[in-house]
Amino acid sequence: MAANVLKCGTGIGARLIFLSPSPKSPRPFGHSLAHFHQITANSYRSICSKPKVCDSAADASSPSARRRSVVSFCAATDASSVEEAQVEAEAISDGDEEQKKIKDAADLLDIRVGLVLRAWRHEEADSLYVEEVDIGEPEPRIICSGLVNYIPIDHIQERKVVVLANLKPRNMRGVKSCGMLMAASDASHENVELLVPPEGSLPGQRIWFGSEDDHQNQPPPATPNQIQKKKIWELVQPHLKTDDTCMAMLGMHIMRTSAGVIISRSLKHANIS
């Protein structure tokens, strides 16, 4: 991995210090470039803050001392400061790898725009709705959602929703549920809202995280068996939140369709599941 190099001092006391990973490598979620530079700047100051000069006039009288009398930063570098800088750089690198792993996993989820054609109460489970959802396939999906205690049924009927479509089907009290409606909830889980696709989005459109380049490079979705075996949803879900404008996010990556961004109607800093 390439490194940014700080030259510290002059003459024989100079040091070349390798502090930071390549600027091309991704930064951890929630860490801006300014924050990254502040880390390296603080490390530089902690290492290169104490000049060493000649201690006496007698020493200064000799030619070798005069050569040494030039202010030389880092000639007696504190080993603990160097180690601290290395730890900071390694932590950033480790964070990069972890967040890339999460983003790559999220790209394998088959999240789509859906349209609820009709919804009704599950006959065998008081807390469940059963929905018939168009997600752009020849036949609508049947999906069960535990939303009875949170969302009135008329707020679901004929509404556009966000569907996680490549989970393994589950039998829910006699009804085979083939997917999940994605919703935001506050920390107490007392308030729950379905995620809302943007105006102009169409059933079946795939949703992604990030920029248009991320959309163009999005891989095909994983199979339901792969999602379950590799625990992909379990890896990604804790990092799905709404921000202070109610936009759905994966870390710093916006959740979006080609028509715009995915939102919650009113819940800020909410968990998404």
Gyration radius, rounded: 28 Å
Largest sheet: 5 strands, antiparallel
Oligomer: single chain
Neighbour order of strands in the largest sheet: 7-6-5-8-11
Helix and strand pattern: EEHEHHEHEEEEEEEEEEHHHEEEEE
Share in helix: 25-40%
CA(first)-CA(last) distance: 36 Å
Q: In percent, how much strand structure appears in the residues?
A: 25-35%
Average pLDDT over all residues = 80
Q: Write down the overall geometry.
A: elongated
SS class: alpha+beta
Number of helices: 7
Number of strands: 19
Low-confidence stretches: 1-8, 12-28, 31-61, 65-76
Structure characterization notes:
A hairpin with a 2-residue loop joins strand 16 (248-250) and strand 17. Mean pLDDT is 80; it is low at 1-8, 12-28, 31-61 and 65-76. The protein has a 5-stranded antiparallel beta sheet, with no helix packed on it. Strands 14, 15, 16, 17 and 18 form a 5-stranded antiparallel beta sheet that branches. The relative contact order is 0.13. The longest helix has 28 residues, at 79-106. It is α+β, with helices and mostly antiparallel strands and 273 residues long. It starts with a strand and ends with a strand. The protein is built from 7 helices and 19 strands.
